[in-house]
Backbone:
């Protein structure tokens, strides 16, 4: 289970200073380009699901390509949900397979992301194109212990206003897809 909270923030620099002071270790810095698709027979916006292909780039070079399915959120406080990810080797081929199955491209979301590891969580500092700055705190594992971990860390960082909408939802609502 992926247990995650997300919040809009004013400054990536200030939050980065806080987490480093708490002992966070840099795990990577990337550009992530996400392409989202909708199912041909059911509306993912209605079912609260997502299907995306993610290109992960470092220094303008593709490091990794992933296909991810996200199930519906399971609670009202966090963005906890089932998530399945498969590594891919060719964006164009998998995109053609998806389109051949009837899936329709919905939107693209691009962000600069710095990942830190802290207290058994991943803290992502995101600069999302056309949306601004966000922090995500994520834990993978059993729901209750992970939920407790992410909420405690958010509290320690002074984060109390969570954003449950995905970057895709925010992008579509803003009309910048």
Residues:
């Amino acid at each position: 289970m992926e247990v995650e909270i997300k919040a809009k923030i004013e400054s990536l620099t200030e939050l980065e200073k806080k987490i480093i002071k708490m002992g966070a270790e840099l795990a990577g810095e990337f550009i992530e380009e996400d392409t989202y698709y909708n199912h041909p027979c059911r509306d993912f916006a209605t079912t609260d699901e997502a299907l995306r292909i993610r290109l992960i780039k470092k220094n303008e070079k593709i490091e990794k390509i992933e296909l991810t399915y996200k199930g519906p959120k399971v609670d009202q406080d966090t963005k906890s949900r089932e998530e399945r990810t498969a590594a891919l080797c060719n964006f164009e081929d998998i995109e053609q397979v998806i389109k051949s199955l009837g899936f329709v491209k919905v939107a693209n979301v691009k962000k600069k992301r710095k990942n830190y590891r802290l207290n058994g969580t991943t803290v992502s500092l995101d600069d999302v194109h056309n949306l601004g700055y966000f922090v995500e705190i994520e834990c993978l594992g059993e729901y209750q212990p992970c939920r407790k971990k992410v909420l405690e860390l958010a509290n320690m960082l002074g984060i109390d206003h969570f954003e449950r909408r995905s970057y895709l939802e925010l992008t579509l609502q803003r009309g910048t897809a």
